[in-house]
Structure formats: structure tokens, C-alpha cells
Design a protein that fits this description.
With about 475 residues, the chain is α+β, with helices and mostly antiparallel strands. The protein has 10 helices and 25 strands. The strands form 5 sheets. Strands 3, 6, 7, 8, 10 and 11 form a 6-stranded antiparallel β-sheet that branches. A 5-stranded mixed β-sheet has the order 1-9-5-4-2, covered by helices on one side. A 5-stranded antiparallel β-sheet has the order 13-12-15-19-18. The longest helix is centred in the C-terminal third of the chain and has 16 residues.
Length: about 475
């Protein structure tokens, strides 16, 4: 992970801008509820939708920008110097490819502008505008599409309701993105705790008056098989309430409400008014998909009285879907052989990290790439096929015969389309793939736009897939 400036992590704490707003307020965004089970999960349409991580970010309660420049962000809260003061942490991430780079000597440079507006009814809008710089060492880095640029800002606010508007503009073009969200700033009285904050790095504070030394993970995302743990930071305030234990009770909950991991973490005491905890969730133990992390200072029945949650999104790799293991295997039906997918499906949960890593290595045609380029291209084709080849209300485009061929092999080298002036040819389409020396014929026998492979073409497709099976 790289910040906007190479030294930004070290400098951010010192240069953080504190806003003291008379009565500005924001929504309590640190305690998103457990993600509800997706009603359409398991259906073919929803499988393709899973390739768009923005849907997962929205369900997790994260900020997702609209516009040509895409970014994702989060808003977290910690206690300020008094109960009337709360620290709001605004954290944003975007990819290098969203920015316009120019060459400067042996490196490449890009700039972007961030505008933060905090407002409430009856009060003047308070605004922070900053100009940020990004430098990378190679042309290849300028095209990275994973989370690689992180922006952080902190503001001191009194508790209450308000609206946060965040926009980012690329300095080298007219591209910009914007998100607007109502927020609630919580009050941290004695006996309260924060929600867990996803972090890349965190150091416990010695007092509420200190600024936080934390680098937030804005997308709350970890990569299965790459990240060994997901780190979360939380604080508790004031003397312990009756029933508090010396440890924090931690649970990880799947998107269907099942507890997949439980542990306890000791509080780090910093005096009578502040304690903190750093949670380390082992990724191999919790699996894939959209999860949540809950923390409570209580044990037993009282835990529900003060339990706060934060999202944990576990993806299959940079730029790959955030989904369950079974759903991912369903997506891969036209990418890998049935035997290879069966082997993955039969793995015990504890063996899946090693099995998935082996699968990526075996199916990656570009072994020097940071992620499986062939798999990413295939998933992009699924989305394209779903949009282009839908034939009725029941079968998504990627599961039609044309969608299957397109998803597996890509755009044909030559395509003979129906011609309205030729009645005989209007019933058939022919797709040619020169590199495989094959042609596929689709026939619309009823004339209703339902294209089916001929028996000979279907047999040729099966033989080809057996020959080039990954």
C-alpha cells in the first residue's frame, strides 16, 4: 500500500488539520450492522454482479464515489479531548490508473485535489481543500488498478448530525468523483467504546488529548492468501463499567449471520480514562466474502448492550471479487476445467488458502503480474457477456450459448451476423477464432433471438476446452 506522498504516513499525524465546528454534526458511521444476506445470492445474475466490488463496499457502509474518478472511503470516530469533542477520521483510497501521470526524469508524477465539506442546517459550510501529489518509479505502476493511493484527514467535532461531501479531481484532466453522505458523530462518554477501525497500522494513544497514530484501511479489505491478518483498532473511555472484563470479546460474523471466528484480546491501559485494543483477525480462519467484526467489553448476556461492528471484506486478490468461495467457483465454470474446480470445491476450509494460491499460479499466463491477469480479463468478459447476450428474462447473458463462448474465448476474430436481406443467412451467426482454428455456428430456429450452438459446434467447443483446459 502506498500513500499519496512517500513520507505521508510519517507526516500525517503532525500536519492533520483539526476543525473546531460550533455545532456541526455527522452520522455515526463506525458501527454498520451485520450485512444482511443477499436475497439473490446464488443466482446467475448475482454471481456476475459480485465482480463489481463497489456493491460490496456499499453494503459494508463505505463511501463509494459517483463520477468518472472512482474512489472508496470510510469515516471513523475516536474520542476527543473531552466528551463534547469527537475526532472524525476521513480516509479515502483510489488507484493509480484514476490519475493522469506525466514523466519527470526517471519517475512519474500525478496530482489531485481533495475538497471536504461539512455542513448542517442553519450553519455555514466548513471546507478543507488540499492538493496532493503522487510519484511512482515506473510506467507500469501508473496503471495499477488496486487500492494504491491513500488520503487521510482528521477533524475535531462536537457530537451531532451533519452531512459530509467529498470530491476528488484529477489535476491532469477533467475527471472527478464525488460522494455525499449524512453522518452522525457519536459522543464518547465514560463507559463507552468505539467500533473497531480497520487499520493498516495503529499505535495506542496515551491520552484522549493526543492525535491518533493510525493508518486506516479505507476499504476494510484483505486479500485471501496474501494478508495473514486483518488489523482493527478500538478504544474504551472512562473507568470500566460494571461487568467489563480485562479483555475485549471479538467475533467475526459471515454475511448470513454465522459466527466463523471468536477470540479475546486484552485491553492496553493508558490510565483511568483511556484504554485501547488491537485486534488481529486471521484471514485463513474466516474465509472469503463480506463479513463483519464485532467487539464488546462484556462477556455473556451483557455483551449485546455494548457491541459495535465494522466490515471485513475478504477478496480473492487485487481486483478480484469479494464473494463466497462457492460463488467464486460458480463464476469460474468457463475459465477452468471441471476437474480443477472440483478439486477446489472439495478442499477443507483450512486448505483453501494454499489451494487457491496454487490455482492462481497454475492458471496465470503472465507469471510476473501482481495478480492473475487471465482471471481478471475473464471476469471482465462475464460482465460484458451479461450485458450483450441476454435473450430472455430467465437466462442471464453470460449463461447463453453466445455468452458462454464469449466468456471462455473472448471476442471472435471474425463474425458473420444475420442479414435481413438474406433470409437463409438471417437464421445463423458464425464466429471464427483463428488462433484456435475453430468456427462456431449459432442458429435462431424460431426467429425470436434465442441463439443456440449447433450440435457440431457444441462438440467442437467441448473438445477445444478439453484441449486448452486450465
Amino acid at each position: 500500500m502506498r500513500s499519496a506522498n512517500p513520507s505521508r504516513y510519517g507526516r500525517w499525524i503532525r500536519r492533520a488539520l483539526l476543525l473546531y465546528l460550533g455545532a456541526v454534526s455527522c452520522r455515526h458511521g463506525v458501527a454498520p450492522s451485520v450485512h444482511p444476506e443477499i436475497a439473490t445470492q446464488g443466482r446467475a445474475d448475482s454471481l456476475v454482479e459480485l465482480t463489481d466490488s463497489r456493491a460490496s463496499y456499499r453494503r459494508a457502509g463505505l463511501l463509494v464515489a459517483a463520477g468518472e474518478l472512482s474512489f472508496v472511503g470510510s469515516i471513523s470516530f475516536l474520542g476527543g479531548g473531552s466528551t463534547d469533542s469527537t475526532l472524525m477520521l476521513i480516509d479515502l483510497s483510489l488507484s493509480d490508473r484514476q490519475l493522469t501521470f506525466t514523466r519527470e526524469g526517471d519517475s512519474y508524477h500525478a496530482g489531485y485535489e481533495v475538497d471536504l465539506a461539512l455542513e448542517r442546517a442553519g450553519s455555514a459550510t466548513r471546507r478543507i481543500t488540499t492538493h496532493e501529489q503522487v510519484r511512482v518509479g515506473s510506467l507500469r505502476e501508473t496503471t495499477r488498478d488496486e487500492e494504491s493511493v491513500i488520503y487521510q484527514q482528521v477533524a475535531s467535532l462536537p457530537p451531532g448530525e451533519a452531512t459530509v461531501t467529498i470530491s476528488i479531481r484529477d489535476a491532469g484532466s477533467t475527471r472527478n468523483g464525488i460522494v455525499r453522505d449524512p453522518v452522525r458523530v457519536p459522543r464518547f462518554d465514560e463507559g463507552t467504546i468505539t467500533a473497531p477501525i480497520p487499520a493498516l497500522r495503529a499505535r495506542p494513544r496515551s491520552s484522549r488529548e493526543k492525535l491518533p497514530e493510525i493508518v486506516v484501511n479505507p476499504r476494510a479489505t484483505s486479500v485471501y492468501g496474501h494478508d495473514s491478518v486483518a488489523v482493527y483498532y478500538l478504544e474504551g473511555y472512562g473507568p470500566p463499567m460494571n461487568g467489563w472484563t480485562p479483555v475485549v470479546q471479538v467475533r467475526v460474523i459471515s454475511d448470513n449471520g454465522v459466527v466463523v471466528y471468536a477470540d479475546s484480546v486484552p485491553w492496553i491501559e493508558a490510565g483511568d480514562k483511556l484504554r485501547s485494543a488491537i485486534l488481529r483477525v486471521p484471514i485463513a480462519r474466516v474465509g472469503f466474502g463480506e463479513l463483519s467484526v464485532s467487539a464488546s467489553p462484556f462477556r455473556g448476556p451483557g455483551a449485546s448492550a455494548l457491541t459495535l461492528q465494522a466490515p471485513l471484506l475478504v477478496s480473492f486478490g487485487d481486483g478480484l471479487p469479494i464473494s463466497s468461495f462457492g460463488d467464486m467457483l460458480g463464476l469460474l465454470r468457463f475459465f477452468a476445467s471441471a476437474d480443477r474446480l472440483r478439486t477446489l470445491r472439495e478442499l477443507a476450509p483450512g486448505d483453501r488458502p494454499r489451494g487457491w494460491a496454487a490455482f492462481l499460479e497454475a492458471t496465470d499466463s503472465a507469471t510476473m503480474s501482481p495478480a492473475n491477469a487471465a482471471l481478471k480479463a475473464y471476469l471482465a468478459r462475464l460482465v460484458d457477456a451479461n450485458a450483450r447476450f441476454r435473450e430472455d428474462d430467465h437466462t442471464p447473458g453470460w449463461l447463453t450459448d453466445r455468452g458462454m463462448i464469449f466468456s471462455a474465448l473472448g471476442e471472435p476474430d471474425n463474425q458473420i451476423e444475420p442479414n435481413a436481406s438474406d433470409a437463409e443467412r438471417s437464421l445463423a451467426q458464425v464466429w471464427s477464432y483463428h488462433r484456435y482454428h475453430v468456427r462456431f455456428t449459432f442458429v435462431d430456429r424460431a426467429g425470436f433471438g434465442r441463439w443456440r450452438l449447433t450440435a457440431g459446434s457444441e462438440a467442437e467447443y467441448r473438445a477445444l476446452m478439453h484441449r486448452i483446459a486450465r
